[in-house]
Amino acid sequence: MNEGNKKLKDTKVGEWLSDKAPKILDVAGDLLPDAGVLGIVKRLVDSDPEIPAQDKLEFERIRLQNEVNIQEQVTRRWEADMNSDVKIAKFIRPSIMIYLIVFFSVVTIWDSVSELFVVRDGYVDLLQYLLLTVLGAYFTGRTIEKSLTKK
User: Fold this and answer.
1) What is the 3-state secondary structure (H, E, C) of the chain?
2) What confidence category does residue 76 fall into, taking pLDDT thresholds of 50, 70 and 90?
3) Pair 89, 81: CB distance under 8 Å
């Protein structure tokens, strides 16, 4: 089982928490260690006055290593897709990105020139999150991947 599928308590971050901050582990230990959960745990660790500053730095190092491991897993999945003989696996991510950009552009223009067509706020928020996620994963992920490859 890879690091990304383990519960927080079964990761290196969980090991650190069990030793240094067991109360936090009791609360978050059964959750998956995605970015949201680790962000919350980081805030709890940072705000806990009982944890020494040196231990907080050690936690940050472990958390960042976990993030690097997750990014490496994403990179391996993307590499597997690109090396696959299945064409859709190679083109799905760029196709989704292109579709969302075109859709966003059309909706933006249509909304600005037509009084009859109004985009509801909920859809604006949804489209914003989708675009940020896809563009962030595609471009930021590729940047991280390239910088890790150079090292």
Assistant:
1) CCHHHCCHHHCHHHHHHHHHCHHHHHHHCCCCCCHHHHHHHHHHHHHCCCCCHHHHHHHHHHHHHHHHHHHHHHHHHHHHHHHCCCHHHHHHHHHHHHHHHHHHHHHHHHHHHCCCCCCCHHHHHHHHHHHHHHHHHHHHHHHHHHHHHHC
2) confident
3) yes
End-to-end, the C-alpha distance of the chain in Å comes to 27
Query: Which tokens hold the place of 102?
Result: 């075109």
- Tokens representing 46 are 């940072």
Give the residue-averaged pLDDT of 121-129.
84
pTM over 0.85: no
Question: If 0-12 CB within 10 Å is exposed, 13-18 middle and 19+ buried, where does residue 59 land?
Answer: buried
How many Cβ atoms are within 10 Å of 150's Cβ, its own excluded?
A: 6
